[in-house]
Write a structure and sequence with these properties.
- The chain is mainly beta.
- The protein has one helix and eleven strands, in the order βββββββββαββ.
- The strands form two sheets. Strands 2, 4, 5, 6, 9, 10 and 11 form a seven-stranded mixed β-sheet that branches. A four-stranded antiparallel β-sheet has the order 1-3-8-7, with no helix packed on it.
- The longest helix is centred in the last third of the chain and has 6 residues.
- The relative contact order is 0.31.
Length: 123
């Protein structure tokens, strides 16, 4: 079992920045590929970004490329999502996920999810 807890959400003006954190406990964090997803009101959950076990490889949704950066600190059992140049359409509940492969993470089929943190971007 892996337990995931997100933090760092909040209200920010368009053009601003936020950094989300996802702290993991339980199994060895460095064994897992990590990802971030978001779900806006009335919409399905959508992939945002993923990072491999070492942190050396990342994948992003087209909608956030160049604005968001995923990173991880295996010594702190934490994955981060730095969000810059935020837009109102980035408003959503952001959740982290853990899985054994990039394919599982990016498909949204992970077994392990956090509870989510709300990000609201005002215009």
């Amino acid at each position: 079992q892996v337990q995931l807890v997100e933090s760092g959400g909040g209200l920010v003006q368009a053009g601003g920045s936020l950094k989300l954190s996802c702290a993991a406990s339980g199994r060895t964090f460095s064994n897992y590929v990590m990802g971030w997803f978001r779900q806006a009101p009335g919409k399905e959950r959508a992939f945002v970004a993923a990072i491999n076990r070492s942190g050396g490889s990342t994948i992003y949704a087209d909608s956030v490329k160049g604005r968001f950066t995923i990173s991880r600190d295996n010594a702190k059992n934490t994955v981060y999502l730095q969000m810059n140049s935020l837009k109102p359409e980035d408003t959503a509940v952001y959740s982290c996920a853990a899985a054994n492969s990039i394919a599982v993470v990016t498909s949204g089929s992970s077994n392990y999810w956090g509870q989510g943190t709300q990000v609201t971007v005002s215009s």
